Amino acid sequence: MLRIKICGITNTEDAFAAIACGADALGFVFYNKSPRSVSPETARSIISSLPPMVTTVGVFVDEDKTTLESTVAFTGLDIVQLHGSESPEYFSLSRKTIKAIRIKDLSDLEVLNQYKTAAAFLLDTYSPDSIGGTGHVFNWEIAVEAKKLGRIILAGGLTPDNIEDAIKLVQPYAIDVASGVEGNIKGKKDHTKLRLFIERARKASLRHYL
């Protein structure tokens, strides 16, 4: 069954809306340069209010390992997602870890072989100006190839309008969306878009997964 992660959660209202619509996981960004970043205190407050069986993911970029581990312990995060240039040795963490790879072309998949201990790979669109949340898609055929190397979480420019096509082609382990379910304010979810995205993703997964 397809897993759905709503990333860039900054407030309790959006967290509960995502859960009500059927999200499996919520992402919290701990990167000060992101417009969707949250403090450990805010994340802890939101996470402590969540019902059971909801997975929480912390997004980090080249964070000091000690700081990362203290943030994980303080907030109660379930999974770590690394978006920087962390070495394979960095992955000896207290939580399962997702490695994000920013995709320009097929050659970018070569690095996946270096991170054999990653629980999954998140494929996002490369941008020289941002580590994620660009709102742009990459060539999904590359994601199909990436499935040969591990569990794939598809990200990068997914929206309610294109999610069915993405799932039909890639059939990923999971999908991840941030900007595609936002309105004009980054970090604030549009609940109508959120509902449509998850509804269409679920229907597409039932139709196209074996």
Explain what this protein looks like in three dimensions.
This protein is of the alpha/beta class and 210 residues long. It has a single domain, classed as Alpha-Beta Barrel (TIM Barrel), CATH 3.20.20. Helix content is 30%, strand content 19%. It contains six helices and eight strands, in the order βαβαβαβββαβαβα. It has helices spanning 12-21, 40-48, 65-75, 140-146, 163-170, 191-208; strands spanning 3-6, 25-29, 55-60, 79-82, 96-103, 120-125, 152-154, 174-177. It has an eight-stranded parallel β-barrel with strand order 1-2-3-4-5-6-7-8. Helix 4 links the parallel strand 6 (120-125) and strand 7 (152-154). Helix 1 (12-21) packs parallel to helix 6 (191-208) and helix 5 (163-170) packs parallel to helix 6 (191-208). The longest helix has 18 residues, at 191-208. The protein is globular, with a radius of gyration of 16 Å. The mean pLDDT is 94.
